[in-house]
Model the fold of this input.
Amino acid sequence: MKDRELKDALKAYAGTPDPFRKDAFIRSVAEKEKRKRATIPAQIFVQARYIRVYAWLTAVVIVLLPLFEASVKFAPLFKVAADVMPFLAGLGVIEAMRAEAHNMAELEQTTLLSAKSAFFARMILIGAAQFAAILAAAALFSKGEAGSMLTAGINLILPHCVTNILCFVLERTKFGRENVWSCFAVAAGVFLLKLIVETTAASFTPDNSLLLLLTAVLIVIEIVEFKKTVNTEELSWN
Done:
């Protein structure tokens, strides 16, 4: 029997669960687990073990890039780091939404940590790791041709923030929740937009204070959109 035939046979044998009974079961388990309140540090500690290695390695690679800047003279590694920022942000959101990406959200609803808590903890961990990596990379790049640490940090953080904001908005839509991997499309769009802005405004150099204000505003918007997405996870089965 081929794998496909075996899969079809098992599916026919098991049948499709009644959606109302399934929903009632998930709600009953969630109601019982409400008595066991996990603290925020406990939630973060639990989820840290379930974040896949590549999510940490991508942050480490960003920190290591500046170390090769001196030896690779003709490779614009700072520009490479800035260009991959949208994809780093998109990858972080996808990892945080992993249950949705692999159609395991319903199972996650029956665990001690709700979907809201799991997403919150994973996103906090991944976001903190990526933000620390960006700061470390900015400090190391500032010793090369990237300019000051402030300039380097702004150039790295801006595309990262824009991607996160758009991904959070997308993931709150029906399409986004059913197509978590679409975050990569968002990242590609931000990357292309970044290239267009750099090409068309090559002769325009905005003041650092203006860019710093824009970065601060985007960080605030990112936090707001993150909170909205966390609340969406809480209401997903209400």
Summary: The longest helix spans residues 208-235. The two ends are 42 Å apart (CA to CA).
